[in-house]
């Protein structure tokens, strides 16, 4: 056959027809598929009822089988009601009723057979409408959010903002959140859209704060839009459900602080990060942010919690004190703790290098340390902040996670160089929109995050802009769990304080001395939190009659009124002064000297205070007498403990129980917000 005889038959028409058929089939599946599940489930129930009727129908076992089906249906309905709490009230009831109706039809079909009267009539007049109700619910929900697209494409919204020719499509539609993509016309970029986001949200008639937008990383003209459905989560009350991953490694699961507006867990991973925790007074930064964070850390293995708060002493840390490895409730104690942090970095990084780890690892043998610095601007002097600045990056690789808490993270409260090292942020409500730029990174603000809209009017609301936070979730609103004082105390006692590794403990003692180190230990009788002298960190005299030394870096003549603010013009100087502490080097020789473990012999801090055993009734009378001596002025629990500790050896929980008894019998009134007690005022008859 010659080349002239070769005829190429055209195939494009057949291919085009096949493509059109495939596309039609895909369209049919995409339309019909989501509507099919209720009928598939219904068919399965009919089949199951027929099978059970053929086996048990008309026998002595029928009654027992149907009783079991009824009990199982009630239990399943109850479980459905509990686990669907995140849905709307209608959605929760709809799901529960569906379970009850399905199990009821199954029991009836077992007795009579699924196609016998009256079961078949119940199936037709009850089951089919119930399936249709699920179809209608899905269609209404889909149409409601297709309305966003319709308003953008045909409602004149895109033209009003200069986005003619742009296209809007829905990429994902879930129960509480929908995802969209907006393709802008050539010449426009995503920043043009995000800049107009508040006004676009208003034009689309959605709730303020429910719309967020971020630029696509690969395409400059593509915007990813997230819409949070339903009402504001700020109106919800969220009781604390307990720790999210008790017993897990701190790196295995995020630290959960609450839930987001789409009812997903809200938190962050502490791996290789430091956090700026900000929020105005009354916004929930301490009891919403710090408490949830502490509860998570206390419940994790490999982790210990350190804390310092000179502004509120033990008001924040008191209920969690049993779970804290070290606590610094005064300015001077806070400086000692900062000195410890600075001193332990080098031996920890050397140990990591010896074990061939570039950064902290659960198998390194070192404890992971979370340091919560409450009201940091009140805690440290300028020199202390310089020392904190020098910790920086090396602390992350050494397995030390800093959480720096401030009401305002402005330039006069914190050096900009230090703020740059806090590479994650959790922001509760702030009082001034101008402070947004200090509380959150620019990418979060561009996405629509605005904590100033809450101020102190919506306590517990927060944004998360952590290292592991996806861009599309930067502007999603979150609400913290509400932990009661009793829950925190019970949680801290249940898990206790984590055990610090010997290498870190050895370095800490070498830095400030055994006495000062023990004064930071909440489980010690020498704990500074039990002292009447708020800034007395040195324990009583040793048997030699001399006060123990505080270590090679002993603090002498510290000015308690030293300024805690600094001149922002010194930022460059600070950056130059900050010494660079190298990261752990996996290439260090294997025979690198490792600091010896802490001695196992018991440390001596001199004779304990004189304590005498008294009967329970006498102890109660002593507490009541101490309360009487307080007069009409408010007081805190530690004041009673400080007065009676030399005479009555009881736990802090025991003192709390006695004060609670006085509240219950009407003698005292407890101010939950201020965490203080005062004598109940007598009202004349």
What does this protein look like?
Keywords: ATP-binding, Nucleotide-binding. ATP binds at residues 279-286. Residues 526-559, 572-616 are annotated as: Disordered. Residues 252-437 form the FtsK domain. Residues 536-552, 577-586 have a biased composition (Low complexity). The strands form 3 sheets. The protein has a 10-stranded mixed sheet. A 4-stranded antiparallel sheet has the order 1-2-4-3. By secondary structure, it is of the alpha/beta class. It is globular, with a radius of gyration of 32 Å. Strand 1 (167-173) and strand 2 (177-183) form a beta hairpin. It has helices spanning 12-32, 37-56, 62-83, 89-112, 119-154, 157-160, 190-195, 197-203, 285-298, 314-317, 331-354, 376-379, 382-397, 416-421, 436-439, 442-447, 485-495, 502-512, 514-519, 571-577, 616-629, 637-644, 652-664, and strands at 167-173, 177-183, 211-215, 222-228, 255-260, 265-268, 275-278, 303-308, 326-328, 368-373, 400-406, 424-428, 461-465, 478-480, 668-671, 676-679. The model is unreliable at 1-14, 532-569 and 571-612 (pLDDT under 50). It is built from 23 helices and 16 strands.
């Amino acid at each position: 056959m010659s080349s002239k005889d070769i005829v190429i038959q055209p195939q494009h028409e057949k291919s085009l027809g096949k493509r059109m058929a495939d596309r039609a089939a895909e369209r049919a599946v995409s339309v019909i598929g989501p509507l099919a599940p209720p009928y598939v489930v219904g068919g399965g129930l009919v089949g199951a009822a027929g099978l059970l009727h053929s086996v048990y129908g008309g026998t002595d076992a029928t009654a027992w089988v149907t009783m079991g089906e009824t009990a199982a249906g009630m239990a399943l309905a109850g479980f459905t009601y509990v686990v669907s709490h995140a849905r709307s009230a209608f959605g929760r009831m709809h799901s529960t009723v569906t379970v009850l109706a399905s199990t009821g039809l199954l029991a009836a079909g077992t007795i009579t057979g699924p196609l016998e009267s009256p079961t078949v009539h119940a199936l037709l007049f009850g089951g089919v409408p119930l399936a249709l109700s699920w179809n209608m619910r899905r269609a209404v929900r889909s149409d409601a959010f297709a309305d966003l697209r319709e308003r953008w494409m045909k409602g004149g919204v895109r033209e009003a903002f200069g986005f003619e020719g742009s296209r809007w499509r829905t990429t994902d539609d879930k129960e509480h959140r929908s995802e969209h993509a907006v393709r802008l016309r050539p010449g426009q970029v995503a920043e043009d859209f995000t800049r107009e986001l508040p006004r676009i949200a208003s034009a689309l008639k959605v709730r303020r704060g429910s719309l967020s937008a971020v630029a696509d990383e690969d395409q400059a003209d593509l915007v990813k839009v997230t819409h949070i459905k339903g009402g504001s989560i700020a109106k919800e009350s969220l009781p604390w459900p307990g720790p999210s991953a008790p017993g897990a490694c701190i790196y295995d699961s995020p630290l959960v602080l609450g839930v987001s507006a789409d009812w997903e867990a809200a938190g962050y991973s502490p791996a290789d990060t430091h956090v700026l925790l900000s929020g105005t007074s009354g916004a929930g930064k301490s009891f919403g942010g710090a408490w949830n964070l502490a509860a998570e850390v206390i419940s994790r293995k490999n982790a210990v919690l350190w804390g310092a708060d000179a502004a509120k002493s033990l008001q924040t840390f008191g209920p969690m004190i049993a779970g804290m490895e070290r606590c610094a409730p005064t300015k001077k104690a806070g400086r000692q703790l900062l000195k410890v942090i600075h001193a332990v970095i080098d031996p920890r990084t050397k140990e990591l290098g010896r074990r061939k780890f570039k950064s902290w690892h659960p198998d390194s043998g070192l404890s992971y340390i979370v340091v919560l610095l409450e009201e940091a601007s009140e805690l440290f002097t300028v020199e202390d902040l310089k020392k904190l600045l020098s910790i920086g990056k090396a602390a992350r690789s050494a397995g030390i996670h800093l959480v720096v808490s401030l009401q305002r993270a402005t330039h006069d409260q914190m050096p900009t160089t230090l703020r740059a090292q806090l590479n994650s942020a959790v922001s509760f409500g702030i009082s001034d929109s101008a402070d947004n730029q200090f509380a959150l990174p620019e990418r979060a603000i561009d996405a629509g995050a605005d904590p100033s809209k809450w101020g102190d009017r919506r306590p517990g609301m927060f944004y998360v802009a952590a290292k592991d936070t996806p861009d599309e979730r930067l502007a999603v609103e979150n609400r913290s769990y509400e932990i009661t004082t009793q829950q925190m105390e019970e949680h801290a006692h249940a898990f206790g304080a984590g055990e610090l590794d010997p290498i870190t403990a050895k370095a800490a003692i070498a830095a400030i001395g055994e006495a000062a180190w023990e004064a930071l230990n909440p489980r010690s009788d020498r704990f500074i939190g039990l002292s009447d002298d708020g800034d007395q960190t040195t324990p009583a005299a040793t048997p030699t009659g001399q006060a123990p030394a505080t270590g090679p870096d002993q603090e002498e003549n510290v000015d308690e009124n030293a300024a805690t603010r600094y001149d922002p013009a010194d930022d460059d100087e600070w950056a130059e002064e900050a010494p660079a502490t190298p990261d752990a080097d996996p290439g260090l020789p294997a025979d690198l000297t490792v600091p010896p473990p802490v001695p196992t012999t018991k440390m001596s801090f001199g004779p304990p205070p004189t304590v005498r055993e008294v009967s329970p009734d006498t102890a109660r009378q002593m507490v009541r007498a101490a309360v009487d001596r307080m007069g009409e002025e408010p007081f805190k629990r530690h004041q009673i403990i400080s007065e009676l500790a030399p005479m009555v050896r009881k736990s802090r929980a025991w003192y709390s129980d006695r004060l609670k008894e006085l509240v219950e019998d009407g003698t005292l009134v407890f101010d939950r917000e201020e965490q203080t007690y005062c004598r109940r005022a007598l009202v004349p008859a």
